[in-house]
Amino acid sequence: MRQRTLWSHDPPSSAGYRSQVPFSADCWSLEQWLQFIFIPKMKAILDGDEPLPECCSIAPMVISQGCGVGGDLTCLEPLLKVLDEVISQAP
Questions:
Q1: Residue 70 and residue 88: Cα distance in Å, rounded?
Q2: Total domain count for the chain?
Q3: Were both Cys, which of 7, 27, 60, 86 would link to 15 (CB 3.0–4.6 Å)?
Q4: Residue 6: inside a domain
Q5: What is the distance in angstroms between the CA of the first residue and the CA of the last residue of the chain?
Q6: pLDDT beyond 80 at 91
Q7: Assigned domain for 37 exists
Q8: What is the DSSP letter of 68?
Q9: Enclosing domain of residue 82
Q10: Taking a C-beta distance cutoff of 8 angstroms, is the pair 61, 49 a contact?
Q11: Which ranges in the chain belong to alpha helices (H)?
C-alpha cells in the first residue's frame, strides 16, 4: 500500500471506528479501512496467537470499488484473494 501511495500518514475521522456498515464504507475509503482496521486487527490476532476468523472476503470489495481515494486498489486484488483463501481455509 505504501508503494502504491495508498498509505495515509493522517488518521481518518473517528466515525469509521463506530460504523456499523461493512468496511466502514459510509465513513472511510477501503484503503483507510484496510490500514486502520483490518491490518491492526490481523496483527493483534497474530501477535496474540489467536485463531483466525472463519472466513474472509475482502477481495470482492476491492473488485467492486476498483479505484480508491489514494489510487488504484486493483493492484491489491491478487494479494487479497490469496489472503481471503488462506484465512478461509485455516483450521
A1: 28
A2: 1
A3: 27
A4: no
A5: 28
A6: no
A7: yes
A8: -
A9: 15-89
A10: no
A11: 15-18, 30-33, 39-47, 59-65, 77-89
Could you tell me which of 84, 80, 68, 66 has the C-alpha nearest to residue 32? 68
Q: What grid cell was written down for 6?
A: 495508498
Partner residues linked to 67 by β-bridges: 72
CATH number of the domain within which 29 lies? 1.20.1440.40
Full-prediction pTM beyond 0.85?
Answer: no
Using CB atoms within 10 A of its CB, is residue 19 exposed (0-12), middle (13-18) or buried (19+)?
middle
Query: Taking 60 as the threshold, does the pLDDT of residue 67 lie above it?
Result: no
pLDDT at 74 over 70: yes
Residue at 25: amino acid letter? A
Q: Which residue type occupies 30?
A: L
